[in-house]
Amino acid sequence: MICSLKKSTDTNDGQTTVNHHEDHPLLPGLPNHLAQTILSTIHPSLLSAVCRRWRHLIYTPHFPPFLSLYAIVANNNSNNNSNSNNNNNNSRPNLSNSINFFMFNPISAKWNPLPLPTTDPPLRLLHRHPSFISRTLTVQALTVAGCLVLIAATGHDFLPALSRPLVYDPLTGEWCDGPPLSNPRRWCAAGCFRDVVYVASGVGAHYRGEVARMVEKWDVKRSRQCNKLSELKDEWRWEAVAGLKDGRFSREAVEAVGYKGKICMVNVKGNLAGKEGVVYDIEKNKWEKMPRGMVEGWNGAVGVAEEDVMYVVDEEKGCVKKYDDENDCWQEVVQGSDLLKGAENMAVGGGKICVVSGGGGRITVVDVAAEPGRMWVVDPPLPESEVISVHILRRPCTRL
User: Which SUPFAM superfamilies does its entry note (predicted)?
Assistant: First the structure.
């Protein structure tokens, strides 16, 4: 055998735990630090198929991180949650009436639950309510500095659920608190560029014109000398930037995107009347009107690859388009598909676009780097769940 299989156990998520009391070499005759350098050049799916010790290696900080799909999920099956909650009030919240977080492991092709944030009082996020049959209450999150950041949500008392952002760091597999929000929101416009989060407009406990025009930024600035993001808590703070001229962007949750040094956003989803777009020039600290072609083609979920290529999934036609800033137009790169119609949310990374559609019941992956573009479906984490949003991040270093 190339590597030892002794005293290693497989877990049901496809990862492996290893007994480190016996320091078996990764490659016979070589010290492990050299073996790690050699093995890091091999695709993780190949290493995973060879032996348990190599399978363990790909989930450690010693192996280059591969990208994984993260999902924020609401479970809509509330028929049986009351009894289980009464019997075990101190346990992890029952999946039948909660918001949960999952990571799809592309090596094992399995969903793994992420730990829930530890808050006092316990975090309770509202996504649907009988009083609002035709409307969902979103949980807004984004990826920045390699982390998943929760920005805004509604609590069960219909007040803002988050007094400060909650940050999940895949490097540690832990949640930590961000800097306190000057005005917690139930929803807002949120986006990022590089390692900076931007929050604009929105609604808190009730509508306020001042908040609807307010724009703030938070520099996450992960330090190489910092092992845990929580060590930066004393340095983190929100800073005011140029505000909006009015409160038109407070009507609903808005997904802003960072594109070529600017933050871009529209005030309504889809191709509705009254759609308006604005662009924030980061260097000039100035808001400008969005180019006409950009706003006219912004007809669905939008995402940006490497902060340089902007994609939209047309919610009516189900096609993927790329924005051409020189000609102010959108060019089709993937033909229309029923799988992509009604796109509600998307994430871009690693040459892939991951799209949520079907009322949150379907996740479609589009390989835009392939010619022609390929696509396939990934089943949601739970059979009776609604995917709120998807995000692309590195895999966690610690075993879930």
Answer: F-box domain, Kelch motif
365-382 core/surface letters (b: 16 or more CB in 10 A; e: else): bbbbeeeeeebeebebbb
Backbone phi, psi, residue 35, to 5°: -60, -40
Cβ atoms of residues 211 and 276 within 8 Å: no
C-alpha–C-alpha distance, residues 298 and 293, integer Å: 9
Mean pLDDT value of segment 233-240: 90
C-alpha pair distances (Å), 230 with each of 113, 123, 253, 361: 22, 19, 27, 34
The per-residue pLDDT for range 296-353, each reduced to its tens digit, is 999 999 999 999 999 999 999 999 999 999 999 999 999 999 999 999 999 999 999 9
pLDDT band at 23 (very low <50, low <70, confident <90, very high): low
Q: Which residue has the tokens 């799988």?
A: 339
User: What is the distance between the alpha carbons of residues 307 and 297, in angstroms, rounded to a whole number?
Assistant: 18
d(CA 295, CA 257): 13
State residue 274's pLDDT score.
79
Order of strands across the sheet that contains 262-266: 257-259, 262-266, 277-281, 286-289
* Pairing state between β 99-105 and 67-75: antiparallel
- Would you give the DSSP letter of residue 119? -
CA dihedral for 154, 159, 160, 161, sign (positive or negative): negative
DSSP at 250: G
The CA-atom distances, in angstroms, between 253 and each of 139, 199, 216, 248, 309 are: 9, 11, 16, 12, 23
